[in-house]
Amino acid sequence: MWYLLIGLGTVIIVVLAAIAVNLQLKVRKQTKEQQAQLEQQQKQTAERREYARKSIKILAQAMLKDELTLTEVSIRIAALVQIFPLSESQLADHRCFVELAKATSHIPILEEWKKLPKAKKKELNIERERLESEYKDFILAACGAIARNDSYLQEYI
């Protein structure tokens, strides 16, 4: 009788040990998968930020060459800079882009612009040019600083 109980106890212990090992292997596999996902997300974030960083530099350089309007560069840079976890002081360096983008956000673009009557387009162009003249010096200075800084936002990649 004792041998039967000892044998049964041994079987139960072996089964429980096998279950524990199986669960431990599943947890280990799940942890590795989570780590791989995290690394993939970090890689994608770094790639997205590097693309945004390069795009901002290209936009700033194009602005300095008069290839874009102040409004267009402001809209694009204001959107791209949001990808980075910037402090308040670093955001202040980009505030002129955000403010001009916000001030001109009511002006239609692309297909909506094409649908406007000529008089309305003229009115909106005058308003846009007035707003651009208010921000011009700040935006040109910011674009110059961005274009000259080879390591611009590099610490966030």
Descriptive account of the structure:
The N and C termini lie far apart (70 Å). Helix 1 runs antiparallel to helix 2 (70-81), helix 1 (2-64) packs across helix 6 (118-148) and helix 4 packs antiparallel against helix 6. The longest helix is centred in the first third of the chain and has 63 residues, at 2-64. The protein has helices at 2-64, 70-81, 88-92, 95-103, 110-115, 118-148. The relative contact order is 0.11. It is mainly α. The chain is elongated. This is DUF2489 domain-containing protein. Pfam families: DUF2489. It comes from Saccharophagus degradans. The chain crosses the membrane at residues 6-25.
Number of strands: 0
Rg to the nearest angstrom?
A: 29 Å
The number of helices is 6
User: Which percent bin holds the helix content?
Assistant: over 70%
Largest sheet: none
Query: In what range is the share of β-strand residues?
Result: under 5%
* Average pLDDT for all residues: 94
Terminus-to-terminus distance: 70 Å
Low-confidence stretches: none
The secondary-structure class comes to: mainly alpha
Shape: elongated
The gist of it:
The protein has helices at residues 2-64, 70-81, 88-92, 95-103, 110-115, 118-148.
List keywords for this structure.
157 residues; mainly alpha; 6 helices; 0% strand
Task: Please specify the SSE layout and strand pairing.
Blueprint: H1 2-64, H2 70-81, H3 88-92, H4 95-103, H5 110-115, H6 118-148
